[in-house]
């Protein structure tokens, strides 16, 4: 993991409309540290993202940018409450969690990026295609993304989540491309005929089914994959309510 520079920010002056000057912060991304995954064994949910943005790298927490909708969707969906209830019911966690002050605070006040590593205790983890910081995920090279898939599979094998939620269609496309290359197949373009948001299941496209079946054969038994829209504030392919419904569907399956 790279180390955070003592002075990762540079400044330069720019003029305002009234003739005054102000300092504009320029961040040198090459000095920003990688963001490590948040993992443990026997996880209930593992969230899979692209790679850390500038704020996530600086703060060393997942989905840290103020405009990212991840934590708003997470809190509104009630996923934490459902995960805790299921872990108590299945015997993974004991009923004393109901007396856990941190947990009570997380549920009543809502979670934010600063809580990502605390959520390991309750069976919720985070990983991504790459730990390297970029301003946007599009700045990761195709080679870099594909190289991240084997490590991603190892993270899933280690954490053995019941549910693995891919946050972004582009990540799922990279996974599909990886398995197409592995099978010596021409890349399968995702379309309304073979792709839908939510839980990944086989359908009527035999070539696409072969990818899904191979992927599931390499995952821990019982792990289900979901694909959700990217939660960046810049992505508006679906409305907030449509995105929230997908998250609520996952909560209902826990």
From TrEMBL:
CDD domains with a match to the protein in the record: UDG-F2_TDG_MUG (cd10028)
Keywords on record: DNA damage, DNA repair, Hydrolase
Disordered: annotated segments: 1-23
Domain Uracil-DNA glycosylase-like stretches: 41-250
InterPro entries: MUG/TDG, Uracil-DNA_glycosylase-like, Uracil-DNA_glycosylase-like_sf
Gene3D superfamilies: Uracil-DNA glycosylase-like domain (3.40.470.10)
GO MF annotations, alphabetized: pyrimidine-specific mismatch base pair DNA N-glycosylase activity; uracil DNA N-glycosylase activity
GO biological process: base-excision repair, AP site formation
Domain of life of the native organism: Eukaryota
Biased composition (Basic residues): 1-12
Name of protein: Uracil DNA glycosylase family protein
Organism: Candida parapsilosis (Yeast)
Lineage of source species: Eukaryota, Fungi, Dikarya, Ascomycota, Saccharomycotina
